[in-house]
Amino acid sequence: MMQKIQKFGGAMFTPVLLFAFAGVVIGLGTLFTTEVIFGPLAAPDTLWYGIWNVVLQGGWTVFNQLPLLFAVSLPIGLANKQNARCCMEVLVAYLTFNYFVSTMLSQWGPVFGVDFAAETGGSSGLAMVASIKTLDMGMIGALAISGIVIALHNKLFEFELPEWLGVFSGSTFVYMVSFLVMLPAALLACLVWPHVQDGIRAFQGFVATVGLPGVWIFAFLERALIPFGLHHLLYSPFYYDNAVVNGGIYAAFATQLPEIAASNKPLTELAPYAAFTCTTWSKLFGCPGIALAFYATAKPEKRAELKGLLIPITLTAIVCGVTEPIEFTFLFVAPALFVVHAALAATLATAMNAAGVIGVFSGGLIEISSLNLVPLWANHWMTYLVGLAIGLAFTVIYFIVFRFLILKFDFKTPGREEDEEIKFRSKAEYRAAQQGGAAGSMSAAADADDPYAVMAAAVLELLGGADNIVDVTNCVTRLRVNVKDEALVADDVDFKSVGTSGIAKNGKAMQVIIGLKVPKVRDRFEQLL
Q1: Which residues are catalytic, by number?
Q2: What pTM value is reported for the model?
Q3: Are residues 46 and 56 in contact, defined by beta-carbon separation less than 8 angstroms?
Q4: What percent of the chain lies above the pLDDT cut of 90?
Q5: What are phi and psi of 401, to 5 degrees?
Q6: DSSP-assigned letter for residue 298
Q7: Which of 171, 206, 299, 327 is such that its CA lies 20 to 30 A from the CA of 110?
Q8: Helix or strand or coil: residue 208?
Q9: Cα dihedral angle (87, 92, 97, 99), rounded to 10 degrees?
């Protein structure tokens, strides 16, 4: 079960990779079309406004079509064969499902307790999906329909039909069956989902009344679930669906951005729902404190070498919001430190919220600048200066706490190991070690001049070879692999020796920490398979 959950979590992350750029475009478009900031230049009747408004509306593409995007993207990670065809099958089936729902509600809306004549959005429970007026099932509905079609695709795509019916085989057969399945699925949605929406609205009210303790719990769990690769499942309903606000925090905040930019009211009053996009702070201020503690507690002779490791992975956390490279340097050698890290991250997020520093703060410096700092600085700069002071104070707290615990319990964090080298191996070093190392046989099949192929070959060998691989996918930094026999998988130190940041094992579910180059490594990995 854990293998399936992890694979689903990785597949669900595929469309999220687009959000960073879309957020930057929306942030800049909002900034340059805000008359309060740019004055008459940004008036609606100017050429300047017209050009930037075109860019802004284009940036909304991803967030305006989130359910459709998630539905179509899921097969990339979950279809066992012919992923591209499965994407097409899901698209057609999902549209068919929504047409069924739309027609049922337009004819028998009162029977289901739905006022189909109401405007979409708000509390109506209705939404527009690809120009279809339908139930607002958000990402949950899209993922459910996509999952059903993927299961049908995996089972029926290669189903053998009689030769005279051959024209209906493959994708056509999958769609035929999906069409029939969508009818009862649509009826079930009309019967059940309006009541689910009532429950969601009740949950929203509960979260809103819990206040700061709810923020602490959310931020703690978001960090604590990272080793299991399940943190996406926690935050996705908050960020991209209706758990806290209709449409998700990202879409709601981006929609309201012009209003927030033009107002000098407190951010907590303007966008209270954004309290839960609070995971940036441990990336911006916590990770530097951790890195400084590692450096201060390292053996003197290893500090110069350690600096070369810590600087890039700390900058990755700060600028890109990707923390796995630095977190996985100590997760397995000192798991207690990771629990402390999760608690400090939650406390920092809660302190920021208490000080009124809220907004879309979940990514790195690039994302938060485009959606917060740049467009909102004119009227909210004092709030951000308060946030900076709190953040720097927590950098010091992180440093003191980590340094104390490392020395107190003699944790073998980077730079304190007895035998293991802390640096990443270069391609030349790896090739030199291939003759006697564990990664020799597979690397012969890899292109020696392609560093991604070299790493893929090494990782494949350390995972027990091609015969031990069940399936593979990836998220933003990890190669997620299910294996047949976990006993054949090498140790964490072996994976680090070939240039990765290590491996997280959970039964037969393996997550090799590659970094931001993981899509290229996965491509070579699949070629070797």
Answers
A1: 475
A2: 0.59
A3: no
A4: 34
A5: -65, -50
A6: S
A7: 206
A8: helix
A9: 150
